[in-house]
Design brief:
Blueprint lengths: L3 H27 L8 E3 L11 H11 L3 E4 L12 H10 L3 E8 L28 H14 L4 E6 L5 H20 L3 E5 L13 H8 L3 E5 H6 L4 H7 L6 E4 L1 E2 L6 E2 L8 H6 L1 H4 L3 E4 L7 H16 L1
Parallel strand pairs: 1-2, 1-10, 2-3, 3-4, 4-5, 5-6, 6-7, 7-10
Antiparallel strand pairs: 8-9
Helix pairs in contact: 4-5
Length: 305
């Protein structure tokens, strides 16, 4: 006869067995590394976030995201808040602020580019954005004070040999400042870093001439013809952060995870080699950001449980 004690014992064993199976499944993907929860890069919500920062972040949490990587918004600062205020808001919503994006140099509109527009099609102005070339210590201090583990250079000039040298110098100085502040500094790529400048691949130079970790944007790397798994193997442990977004078969632009051509299973199976500690879903300027991040979350659950 099954009594209360044996029932509890058997139930506990079954639960432990289920947990063990899940841990083994994770181990198959990340080796001996625990699977981090899915994060979101807030640039995905650029056109809507500032309209209602608390309300939109609440939606993000409800979809199932647990970690946040911030960037610039339309209100300046941290979506109109100080770093400490933004950190407190995220904590209240059960979200963990893991990383923040900054510019490497003063922002310049690309030649021939049109001013940014909002969902209504009308141009809008963005408050002046601080950058590592001019405001490095101020940026490091503000993010460190809020207890954010990572500071990331979102982009930096490298169109000439001189620009690349100057950017690498800025990356190295920021890396040292972050170390002193107890943070980790990373560099985020687009696809242009993999195109030769004066016979040299900027991304190769950044890997060789800096010791900062890398946030590999998997979509842009694939667009540039790079095999993420091969670069993981060539520089093991260097890619602590990932940007996770898909790309269409024509290699034209980002898509929600699982709706494009990227082999996510293969990439996640090599996460341990890469050194990945956090990954952030991102979709640059989607028509419907909440539909996009919901699709990505649903497909990530199918991929990694």
């Amino acid at each position: 006869m099954t009594n209360r004690r044996s029932f509890i014992k058997n139930t506990t064993a079954l639960a432990a067995g289920g947990l063990l199976l899940k841990e083994k499944a994770f181990a198959g993907i990340l080796g001996n590394t625990a699977m981090p929860p899915a994060g979101l890069q807030l640039f995905t919500l650029f056109n809507v976030l500032d309209n209602d920062v608390p309300g939109n972040l609440k939606k993000v949490a409800a979809i199932g995201y647990k970690e946040i990587e911030s960037a610039f918004g339309k209100k300046g600062g941290f979506y109109g808040l100080s770093a400490k205020e933004f950190s407190a808001l995220l904590k209240d919503l059960g979200l963990s602020w893991k990383s923040h994006h900054v510019l490497g140099a003063p922002f310049k509109m690309p030649a021939g580019a049109k001013p940014p527009v909002g969902p209504d099609g009308k141009p809008f102005s963005i408050p002046p954005m601080k950058n590592l070339t001019e405001n490095m210590q101020e940026l490091v201090d503000s993010v460190a004070e809020a207890g954010v583990p990572y500071l990331v250079c979102a982009n930096t000039p490298f169109g000439t040999t001189e620009e690349l040298k100057a950017s690498i110098d800025t990356l190295n100085k920021t890396n040292e400042a972050c170390k002193k502040a107890g943070m980790t500094f990373a560099y985020h790529n687009h696809d242009a870093e993999f195109k030769a400048v004066d016979g040299k691949i900027p991304y190769d130079a950044m890997l060789a001439d800096t010791s900062c970790v890398m946030e590999l944007d998997l979509c842009w790397a694939v667009k540039a013809g790079i095999d993420p798994v091969e670069i993981f193997k060539k520089h093991p442990g260097r890619f602590q952060l990932w940007h996770v977004k898909d790309i269409d078969k024509d290699m034209k632009g980002p898509q929600p995870v699982g709706t494009g051509i990227i082999d996510w299973k293969r990439i996640f199976n090599n996460a341990s080699t890469s050194g990945m500690k956090h990954y952030f879903v991102e979709h640059d300027m989607p028509a419907d950001p909440f539909a996009s991040i919901t699709t990505s979350m649903e497909n990530l659950k199918k991929l990694i449980g």
